[in-house]
Model the fold of this input.
Amino acid sequence: MTTSSLDNPPTPLAARLAAFTPLLFVVLWSTGFIGAKLGLPDCEPLTLLTLRYAAVLVLMGAIALATRAPWPASPAQWVHIGVSGLLIHAVYLGGVFTAIRLGLPAGVTALVVGLQPVLTALGAGLLLRERVRATQWAGLALGLAGVVLVVARKVEGGPAAAALLLPAIVALAGITAGTLYQKRFCASFDLRTGSVVQFLPSLVVTGLGAWRTETMVVHWTPAFVFALGWLVLVLSLGAVSLLNVLIRSGSAVNVASLFYLTPPTTALIAWAMFGETLTGLALAGMGLAVLGVWLARK
Done:
């Protein structure tokens, strides 16, 4: 998909398919936590992300060259797209994976990152001059309450977990700043070459971090190979491309509100794959999260 394709009016079929893009993004993005659960026992977090980014660069670079996709037209665009990639991939994912690896409960991590839609709404009003309506604020509040209910039973560790919060807070800052930065400076770019430009600096920074702080030992078990392939193909090529499309076509608040649906969807997937139980409180939280996102995007 190129930016020029947006200049043409969408066909009825394309419009109907576009309506499902947010739902598909939520489902695919939620599986990233499952990939981390499968892959991190056999590999340290930054090493896993380094392998992931390297594989994405090879695949997407080959696609971009084979299809002769257009590259950013100016050095400034290269820089803006690269910075957005660093924030969304290197900072956000590096923080989440590191927090989970260090032992921060997944529920606490989800709660911290779950503040992102609220912070994005504040930033959208201040930096992007987007008008955040009262119904959107109500939706964001309901969505956050829903996330709290979904992960309430999984929040453990108490004060002991507080010392491990820093990577999750860094991740929260990364995804919030990345969404706002991309919407402000480089909302529109070719998904093929833009992915290369986004992942290249992320590979360099994450690879250096892994080299300096980790052993970089990998156990190539079947579970790890499956997890790496899933993270590369489904998350980095599929979900990230959809995220770029959503940032390009919608407001920052609308895009950020979708992240409220990630913990409930992840809980459903974990229930189906690993037999994790769902409490009545969690089911109520899922309903609140869906209602909140509906209000925020209404």
